[in-house]
From TrEMBL:
It comes from the Bacteria. Gene3D superfamilies: Farnesyl Diphosphate Synthase. The lineage of its organism: Bacteria, Bacillati, Actinomycetota, Actinomycetes, Propionibacteriales. The keyword Metal-binding applies. InterPro entries: Isoprenoid_synthase_dom_sf, Polyprenyl_synt, Polyprenyl_synt_CS. The keyword Magnesium applies. GO terms for molecular function: metal ion binding; prenyltransferase activity. This is Geranylgeranyl pyrophosphate synthase. It comes from Propioniciclava flava. Belongs to the FPP/GGPP synthase family.
């Protein structure tokens, strides 16, 4: 592995800072109210994971224009944030990024409209990049929505629960993260085999990202979100699915608590306590770590250098994140 390079790191930092300014501009609207509501979640922070992936992948080959990198990153982050406005309505989430969600602050209608507004801004930005980008963005949007619909509908007749869960998170999270790595490759003119490897890496690291997000929903009180949201909604994530597949007599109470949606806060707390101490949490963490290695494996096709090393380092950071 090459040593971290100060110039490379400084370049990435400069791009992320420039993207931050342009994101706020892209979310500016005709009225102060809409601007405030649209900038609300952006101003609250966030990891900017998708912009980072665009920037890193854009450095696999020389020649990417700064402006194209920034616009590609903005499209990904605006689409992501737009989906969060809608997601918090559907999940009735009150807190996001440590601040009140848009729906809890302004109501569902404003939250949905602001999500649409941000998606419109992502669309006008992607149009400046070209039709290949528009096509991938549109296909990704269709997958996001279908993943969300599949999650909402739940299991269909005869479907394997773990397969259903993995398909849902591939569509609702993996797709946009894969589009981010591919956008980065596109702006630096990466050849088709590298774009394919970036897509495979992005899908897998996206799964790792969502699996660890779902673990944090159980394990962390410091994620900036309310713990136990999936339990309240009755959405079974990996630890609950592993529990159902291997439960013993001792698990009767936890199985009962995790069988469907919970609206009693004492029961949510009880389920969280039991799950946090259960072996299925370690089994789920092991699966996350295994998949992070699968993601890393796809990088072997990429040219060696700082960009590839940074994408490799992200595998560990995403698998073992604490927020
Ligand atoms: C978060 O999942 C939600 C998503 C990753 C995407 C949901 C997709 C949509 C709402 C459709 C897309 C709409 C637009 C306008 C682009 P989660 O609830 O498991 O995660 P959380 O813990 O962050 O709430
Ligand atoms: Mg949610
Ligand atoms: Mg959701």
């Amino acid at each position: 592995m090459t040593q971290p390079d100060a110039d490379f790191e400084a370049f990435v930092r400069r791009r992320i800072d420039a993207i931050e300014l342009r994101l706020a501009e892209a979310a500016a609207a005709q009225t102060a109210f809409t601007s405030d509501a649209a900038q609300h979640l952006l101003a609250a922070g966030g990891k900017r994971f998708r912009p980072l992936l665009v920037v890193l992948a854009s450095q696999l080959y020389a020649g990417a224009e700064d402006s194209a990198i920034d616009r590609a990153a903005i499209v990904m982050e605006l689409t992501h944030v737009a989906s969060l406005y809608h997601d918090d309505v559907m999940d009735e989430a009150e807190v996001r990024r440590g601040v009140p969600s848009a729906n809890s602050r302004w109501g569902n209608t404003v939250a949905i409209m602001v999500g649409d507004f941000l998606f419109a801004r992502a669309s006008s930005t992607v149009a400046t990049l070209g039709t290949d980008y528009v096509m991938l963005q549109a296909e990704t949007f269709a997958r996001l929505v279908q993943g969300q619909i599949a999650e909402t509908r739940g299991l269909t007749e005869g479907e394997d629960p773990l397969r259903h869960y993995l398909d849902v998170i591939a569509d609702k999270t993996g797709s946009l993260i894969a589009a981010s790595t591919v956008f980065g490759g596109m702006v630096c003119g990466a050849p088709p085999e590298v774009l394919s490897a970036l897509a495979a890496y992005g899908e897998e690291i996206g799964l790792v990202f969502q699996l660890s997000d779902d673990l944090l929903d159980i394990a962390s009180d410091a994620s900036g979100k309310t713990p136990g949201t999936d339990l309240r909604e009755g959405v079974p994530t990996l630890p609950v699915l592993l529990l159902r597949a291997s439960a013993t007599d001792e698990d009767a109470r936890l199985l009962e608590l995790t069988a469907g949606p919970l609206d009693d806060e004492a029961e949510v707390a009880e389920a969280l306590t039991l799950l946090r101490a259960h072996r299925v949490m370690d089994e789920a963490r092991a699966e996350v770590a295994r998949r992070a290695e699968v993601a890393r494996g796809y990088l072997s096709v990429l040219p060696q250098g700082h960009a590839r090393d940074a994408l490799s380092a992200l595998c560990d950071q995403v698998a073992f994140r604490s927020a």
